[in-house]
Design goal:
The chain is α/β, with parallel strands linked by helices. It has two domains: about 1-150, 3-Layer(aba) Sandwich (Alpha/beta knot); about 165-235, Trp Operon Repressor, Chain A (Orthogonal Bundle). It has seven helices and nine strands, in the order βααβββαβαββαββαα. It has helices at about 15, 20-30, 65-75, 95-100, 140-155, 200-215, 230; strands at about 1-5, 30-35, 50, 60, 80-90, 105-110, 125-130, 185, 190. The structure holds 4-amino-N-(piperidin-4-yl)-1,2,5-oxadiazole-3-carboxamide. The site of 4-amino-N-(piperidin-4-yl)-1,2,5-oxadiazole-3-carboxamide has 17 residues, from β5.
Amino acid sequence: MHIHVITLFPEMFGSPLGASIPKRAQDKGTLRIFLWNLRDFAPGKHRETDDTPYGGGQGMVMKIEPIAIALEAVCDSMTAPWRVLLSPQGRRLDHAVVQRLAGHEEIVLVCGRYEGVDARAASFVDEEVSIGDFVLSGGELPALVLIDALSRLVPGSLGNPASASDESFVDGLLEYPQYTRPEEFRGQRVPDVLLSGDHARIADWRRQAALQRTRERRPDLLDGAKLTEEDRGIPTATGDHPDPPED
Ligand code: 4GS
């Protein structure tokens, strides 16, 4: 997968992409990141990328021309680029969106700055994506969030490929509670079933715990989750850590 980023701050990307899974994916060659400075595509002596808003108002707006020129130049040699503008007006990012985007070999991300981007930018991209209902100072962190999530889905990037199918949201639910040593810490014990070595019971407990957590914290997710009849029969829970099914 090739990910191109058009940004006024390419220096923001080095450290987050130089560690952990994004680094491993790039070292393996399955993920390549290309950083493009928007200013290099801005025409004129001063290479301005922003201007005052028509109609008046606070702050500055990103000009359309540098963005259009950058997108055309960056996409010129590509067969099927998928162009994404990070913006609070976009579709909310979730695991389904990440999976869909992971199906593209060549992704081009455009990062906004200032108070916003000229509305005509929408006609130069394939979609707009938002990472949440809050206002950031630029689209660089949203782009990094998306690249990090995508890097986990690139084949070969995870040490254990099962990790990609075993986490929150993958089956539409929150993840089950995880524990590691010690068995007891300041009065809190690890649920006995997890120490039992009975893999069928552990799987069953984890499924119920994930369902219970999701029902308590994110009931909105249950509408979209794939649930069996058995899943639906789990009674409403009161605590975060359900009892094992039986002893
Ligand atoms: C987001 C967001 C964002 C909006 C960029 C104001 C600078 C800023 N982008 N998801 N102008 N939330 N962008 O806040 O994607």
